[in-house]
Each structure stands twice: as structure tokens, then as C-alpha cells.
């Protein structure tokens, strides 16, 4: 059963089945996404930035809830980049008491699945070089450090550009194996 956290640094006890993952469902989810990102990430974003992502790529935005409390979100996009379709993870947040329970992994995995089904060949993102939790999470998911971006964030912190190469569908191989 869940125990209420006395402060944001404490972990909560709950069953994985109690977490509900949903796709972005419209304007009523936007304030919840904005609150999470504004409280947890170092970069400030305007309402226009949020709307850019959720209006153009709503299928790539997911939220996690526990007992009607929004506790995590991932916001992504995809588009052409140098002749290939590329996915991009713009924002990922899970509030502190819920971290380390696989929620971020599930949110990112859901968005990557949609990107793969849409034909993306790779997924990229930036993460602060000091964010060990994020770097470990993306490392477990197969992302590699492609580049260091010096003083990338407004707070002066460097970033790593992380990249995940997605498996290509090889119709010729599939046809050959079927014969």
C-alpha cells in the first residue's frame, strides 16, 4: 500500500499496476504537463513550445498517473533529418518520489515504439552531463553519447546529445526468409 511522502525526496511504496499510462488527450492535459516540466527541468519553456509539440505530435506524448495524480510525462516529436525520419525526445519528467520504479522507462519506451512504427530510423535527445539518473536510464535503453554540447543549457551546464539507432525493417530479407 502507498505511504504518503513526508517530503519530495522520499520514495513511495505502490504496486506497478497502480500506475496508469495514457496518451495525450487534449488541452486538459496541457497544464499538468507544464506544471511537471516547469517544476522539474532546468530549462524554461513558453506555452507556445508545449503547444508546438503536443498539437503536432500528440501521439508521441504520454502521461503517467497514480490515483489521479499526474506524476510523469514524456513529450516528443519526429521529422525529417538529413534524408531520414528522426524521433526527438524533448522533455521527460517523473517527480522525485516516483523515480527509480520504471515509470520513465515505460514512458520513453511507449514513445519510441510509436516512432518505430512510424518509420523513424533514430531517436535523439539532449541531457545535462550532470544528470546521472537520465544518463543511466538512456544508457539502459541503448542510447549512446554522440556529442558533448558545451554550455548548452541556460544554466551554463554542458549537455550530451544522445542517440538511439532503431532497427530497420528489411522487406527483402523477410521475403527471402518466407520463400
Could you characterize what this model shows?
- There is one protein chain.
- By secondary structure, the protein is of the alpha+beta class.
- The chain contains 5 helices and 7 strands; from the N terminus they run βααβββαβαββα.
- The chain has helices at residues 30-40, 47-56, 103-117, 132-140, 171-178; strands spanning 19-23, 62-66, 69-81, 84-94, 122-128, 144-149, 159-165.
- The protein has a 7-stranded mixed sheet, sandwiched between helices.
- It is globular and about 45 Å long.
- The chain starts with 18 loop residues before the first strand and ends with a helix.
Concise overview:
This protein is α+β, with helices and mostly antiparallel strands and 179 residues long.
The portion of residues forming beta strands comes to 25-35%
Q: Which spans have pLDDT < 50 for at least 5 consecutive residues?
A: 1-8, 172-179
Strand order of the largest sheet: 1-2-3-4-5-7-6
Structural class: alpha+beta
Number of discrete helical segments: 5
As a whole number of angstroms, the C-alpha radius of gyration is 17 Å
From the N-terminal CA to the C-terminal CA, the straight-line distance is 54 Å
Helix-strand sequence:
EHHEEEHEHEEH
Question: How many E strands?
Answer: 7
Q: Mean of the pLDDT scores? A: 89
Gross morphology = globular
Proportion of residues in helical segments = 25-40%
Largest sheet: 7 strands, mixed
Amino acid at each position: 500500500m502507498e505511504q504518503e511522502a513526508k517530503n519530495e525526496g522520499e520514495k513511495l511504496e505502490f504496486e506497478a499496476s497502480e500506475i496508469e499510462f495514457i496518451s495525450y488527450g487534449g488541452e486538459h492535459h496541457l497544464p499538468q504537463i507544464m506544471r511537471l516540466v516547469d517544476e522539474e527541468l532546468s530549462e524554461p519553456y513558453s506555452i507556445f513550445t508545449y503547444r508546438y509539440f503536443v498539437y503536432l505530435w500528440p501521439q508521441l506524448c504520454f502521461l503517467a498517473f497514480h490515483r489521479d495524480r499526474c506524476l510523469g510525462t514524456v513529450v516528443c516529436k519526429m521529422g525529417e533529418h538529413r534524408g531520414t525520419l528522426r524521433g526527438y525526445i524533448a522533455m521527460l519528467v517523473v517527480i522525485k518520489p516516483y523515480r527509480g520504479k520504471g515509470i520513465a522507462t515505460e514512458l520513453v519506451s511507449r514513445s519510441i515504439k510509436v516512432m518505430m512504427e512510424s518509420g523513424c530510423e533514430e531517436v535523439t535527445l539532449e541531457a545535462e552531463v550532470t544528470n546521472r539518473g537520465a544518463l543511466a536510464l538512456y544508457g539502459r535503453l541503448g542510447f549512446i553519447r554522440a556529442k558533448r554540447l558545451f554550455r548548452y543549457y541556460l544554466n551554463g551546464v554542458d549537455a550530451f546529445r544522445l542517440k538511439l539507432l532503431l532497427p530497420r525493417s528489411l522487406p527483402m530479407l523477410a521475403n527471402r526468409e518466407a520463400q
